[in-house]
Amino acid sequence: MNEKGLLIVISGPSGTGKGTICKELLKRNDFWLSVSATTRLPRDGEENGKHYHFLTKEEFKDKIEKKDFLEYAEVYSNYYGTPKSYVLEKLEKGKDVILEIDIQGALNVKKTYKEGVFIFILPPSMEELKNRIVNRGSETPESLKTRLQSAHKEISFVKEYNYAVINDTVEESVKKIESIILSEKCRVKRINDEIDKNFINFKCKE
Fold first, then answer.
1. How far does Cα 111 stand from its chain's mean position?
2. DSSP class of residue 167?
3. What pTM, to 2 d.p., does this model score?
């Protein structure tokens, strides 16, 4: 009934597999992945508009002034943000939008777009999260400790989300998220106008 799309915000600590889950969701469903804007320089192989919208700091700050971002943050002297117009345009056209974003950004989006569906990806356990990060082979003992401490802190925000999905396997996690999305589309508050129009206020012809 309701043609407006859902904003599906997915977050979780590094190593939980949220990126892999999002890729699989996009393969299996007609979703649109929100592309962030950034002031950092493109890396090899990155394309403007596909991987990021690359902006100068002056352009980015101008968009901040115009309130053109759903959320933004400064990280290591560069800005990152979610362009509002792209997302709202897709939602109004009935397209479901996936936004893979960090916890800070997700909570900022929640303040400005309460209709969003906020899903937190958890590891099976902290020990498993440690194993996944170690298996990447890119961490020193010091950086591993820092990452785990950061993950533990981030997980404390899980209760700010609507749903939590423990990522035992990508397949099961994707199925759970698809079920969440289907359930959300059936919420009375989301289709209330259509219910009023087609049922509550319906008048039988004499």
1. 14
2. -
3. 0.89
Question: What letter would DSSP give residue 12?
Answer: -
Q: Which of 88, 184, 165 is nearest to 121 (CA)?
A: 165
162's CB contacts (< 8 A; 6+ apart) are 117, 118, 119
Q: Which residues are bridge partners to 8 per DSSP?
A: 98, 117
16 to each of 52, 189, 198, 205, how far by Cα in Å?
22, 32, 43, 57
Burial code of 71-88, b = ≥16 C-beta within 10 A, e = fewer?
A: bbeeeeeebbbbbbebbe
pLDDT of residue 1: 46
Pairwise CA distance, residues 103 & 2, whole Å: 29
Instruction: Sort strands 78-83 and 37-38 into parallel, antiparallel or unpaired.
Output: antiparallel
d(CA 161, CA 99): 14
Measuring CA to CA, how many Å separate 161 from each of 94, 122, 195? 23, 12, 27
DSSP state of 159: G
> 26 to each of 12, 33, 57, how far by Cα in Å?
18, 8, 31
Confidence at 192, pLDDT banded by 50, 70, 90: confident
> In degrees rounded to 5, what are phi and psi of residue 164?
-125, 135
One DSSP character per residue, 42-56 reads PPTT--BTTTBEE--
Asked whether the beta carbons of 23 and 34 are under 8 A apart, the reply is no
pLDDT, tens only, 85-104: 999 999 999 999 999 999 99
